[in-house]
Amino acid sequence: MPSAAAPDTLVPARTFDRRDFLAASLGVGFALAVQPVTAQTAIHTGADGLIAGEVRIPVKDGDMVAYRAQPQDAAKPPVVLVVSEIFAVHEYIRDVCRRLAKLGYLAIAPELFARQGDPRGIDSIPEIMTRIVGKTPDAQVINDLDACAIWAVANGGDAARLAITGFCWGGRITWLYAAHNPRLKAGVAWYGRLVGEANDLTPRQPLDLAGELQAPVLGLYGGLDSGIPLATVDDMRTRLKTGSAAAQVSQIQVYPNAPHAFHADYRPSYHPAEAVDGWQRMLDWFRDHGV
After folding, report:
1. Rounded to whole angstroms, what are the CA distances from 210 to 6, 76, 177, 182?
2. DSSP-assigned letters across all residues of 123-137
3. Long-range contacts for 13-20 (Cβ within 8 Å, ≥24 apart)?
4. What do you get for the CA distance between the two ends of the chain, in Å?
């Protein structure tokens, strides 16, 4: 199962009791901060043929809610950890899990902000960043993802075929988790930030960890992303080339005409051609690396 992170990699997670899990259920629909949803493009994947819904993941300080989707009759399906944007596990992330389950995966998306609050009910992105995301320790997130991997295997998933993918904030976490877990086979990071301020809660950034990857990562980025300068993407490529064996296998795909969140089919940023191509590249990446 996932090993502990190196002491100098992540700060210890805070200790909570069960009443501190503020996001107690997943609810329905899309987060307030992304309304109105672009309904004409939002993709809906049904749950027929799947086991899908809310589950509780035991972590050291309580029970964390998550969304799980997997094929009904598959024996030991490969496991994909799905890491949300800052909007947490709203309908888009749940649908991503169902899409993966339709392809044979056990996909699980945990509410990683559960102790800090529920971003889905806040209608302001700056407020989400200040009240919740900015108070969420990387160490806590990594520990929770380890717990999800353990839960997935205990509930029928294949321990030897573990992958991770994440979007925006979750893309950054994907890079971090690939530097943490030696059991991970592959990661796909969708437009995750590569640099940022170091502090007690976020002590290291993907660029700092590029040479330490323990699983190969495919990064998918938009050339028109105003929040992720292409210079930082180029720096990441350079560091990957001289890093670990997994780092050297890692790749970054930049779509020149795509903005940030080009896969988010419920938002105006959605670019269908790049989203479809990125999704297929993700599936190929998983397959090529044994997931």
Report:
1. 15, 31, 11, 15
2. --HHHHHHHTGGG--
3. 13/60, 13/61, 13/137, 13/139, 13/140, 13/143, 14/115, 14/137, 14/140, 15/61, 16/61, 16/62, 16/115, 17/61, 17/62, 18/61, 18/62, 18/63, 20/61, 20/62, 20/115
4. 16
Reply yes or no on whether 168 is catalytic: yes
What is the model's pLDDT at position 22? 63
pLDDT for 41 equals: 85
Nearest to 128 by CA among 96, 92, 169, 91: 169
HSE of 59 in the Cβ direction (CA atoms, 13 Å)?
A: 32
Beta-ladder partners of 13:
none
Q: How far apart are CA 51 and CA 64, in angstroms?
A: 19
The per-residue pLDDT for range 38-63, each reduced to its tens digit, is 887 889 999 999 999 999 999 988 89
From the candidates 138, 225, 263, 289, which is the catalytic residue? 225
What pLDDT sits at residue 25?
77
Note if 97 is an active site residue.
Answer: no
Annotated catalytic residue, options 90, 180, 260, 263: 260
Residues 6+ apart with CB under 8 A from 154: none
Confidence of residue 3 (pLDDT cuts 50, 70, 90): very low
Helix (H, G, I), strand (E, B) or coil at 258: coil
Mean pLDDT of 79-85: 98
3-state secondary structure of 118: coil
Instruction: Say how far apart CA 98 and CA 191 lie, in whole Å.
Output: 21
- H or E element in which residue 221 lies: strand 217-222
Q: Mind giving me the DSSP string for 222-244?
A: ETT-TTS-HHHHHHHHHHHHTS-
Instruction: Indicate if 73 belongs to the active site.
Output: no
